[in-house]
Each structure stands twice: as C-alpha cells, then as structure tokens.
Amino acid sequence: SAAQSVLNQARTGQAERLAAGAALASAALSTAFGQELDVQNLRGEANYWRVVQAKSTPFYGAALQVGALLAGAEEETAQGLYRYGVLLGEIIQVWDDLIDAFQTPAGPDWLEGRNNLALLYASVAEHAERARFLDLVENASDPAALKEAQGILVCSGAVSYCVYQLAHRAAKARHQLAQLRLRDAKPLSAILDAQLAPIA
C-alpha cells in the first residue's frame, strides 16, 4: 500500500505509472502466495526453490522493474532488470540460509526444521556423518550439539553446495546484466558484488 501511494505521486506519464502499478501488484500477489507456501514448511529441494521463487525473488525483481518503468525504460529492459533482480533475490536467500545455519544459539531453521538449503543438503545427501547430523539436529538447542552439527555442514559439502548455487546464479546475473546494454550498469553490478563479497 505504501509503495502504491508513492507510485501515485510519481512524476511520470500515466502509461508508465500503470505498468509500474501492475508490476507491484504482481509482486505482491506472488509474495503472498510464497508466504503461504513458506508457512507450510514444505520439504525437499524442489519445494525450497519453489518457495524462494514465489516469496523472495519477486520483491527484488519488482524493485528494479518498477524503477526502470518509471524512468521510461523499454519493456524489454524492464523485464531484463526484473530477471536480474530475481537472481539477486535467490543469491540473498541462499546467503541468508548460510548465516542462519551458523548463528548461535540455534535459530528457527534448526529448531523448527525450516527448509534451509545448507541443512537440507546435510540431511539428505549421502555423506559419512549424515546419521549423526540428523541426531544432532534433534538436539540443536544444546550448544555442543549445534557446534558439532555446524562442523558437519562444512565437512559434508553443504556449505560448498550453497556456494556453488551462489556462484552459478552470480554468473547468470552478470550475463543478464551484460545483455541489457545499459548506459551505466555499475550501480547494479555493485549490488551483486556487495552480496558476494562475504562469500569471497
């Protein structure tokens, strides 16, 4: 509602305002659906990405898309920026999962069995300490159990898998940005660089 209120005050043409309003509405609807999926705490990697794409990514995509539309960009450019924002949203979500996985004391991802990508990997991938990890998850409120489980996240390849997902999406985002042929892509590139800096 606040975004729509600001949009109504934008100094731009009616066509641009209508297009931006449609983008906002679409993002709000998708995010609401994603929130509904999220509270169901669906299991598995396919559902993980389904929730991320519904809940997390439309927010970032629409932010860039609306800015482009209000600035008078062509529809193709606005859509390209939306896709770039979607990739940013996926990167931000995976990074948040890594932060949540290593926070102490254990947060909701551990205690409520949330579908965190790192925890999911260590729970289902074939590795030597999988059974031990599953036992430790049940006692994640115990600091010693949490510390051991977090060590397994590293040894099992869970962290590496998350970093792979981040690197894969970063490469796609850079390609997407290059395809747009913007006059000055540096500010958008800087957003991506800031997200990747802690990982690097």
Secondary-structure class: mainly alpha
Q: Total number of β-strand segments? A: 0
**Main beta sheet strand tally, sense and closure:** none
Rg (C-alpha, Å): 19 Å
Order of helices and strands: HHHHHHHHHH
Q: Residue-averaged pLDDT, rounded?
A: 89
- Poorly predicted runs are none
Helical content band: over 70%
Number of helices: 10
Query: What does the overall shape look like?
Result: elongated
State the distance separating the first and last CA atoms. Answer: 38 Å
Question: Can you put this structure into words, describing what you see?
Answer:
This protein is mainly alpha-helical and 200 residues long. It is built from ten helices and no strands. It has helices at 2-8, 14-39, 45-70, 75-101, 108-111, 117-124, 130-137, 143-155, 158-180, 186-196. Helix 1 runs antiparallel to helix 2 and helix 4 (75-101) packs parallel to helix 10. The radius of gyration is 19 Å and the shape is elongated. The model has no long low-confidence stretch (mean pLDDT 89).
Outline:
The protein is mostly helical and 200 residues long. The chain contains 10 helices and no strands.
List the topology elements.
Layout: H1 2-8, H2 14-39, H3 45-70, H4 75-101, H5 108-111, H6 117-124, H7 130-137, H8 143-155, H9 158-180, H10 186-196
Name the features.
10 helices, single chain, mainly alpha, 200 residues
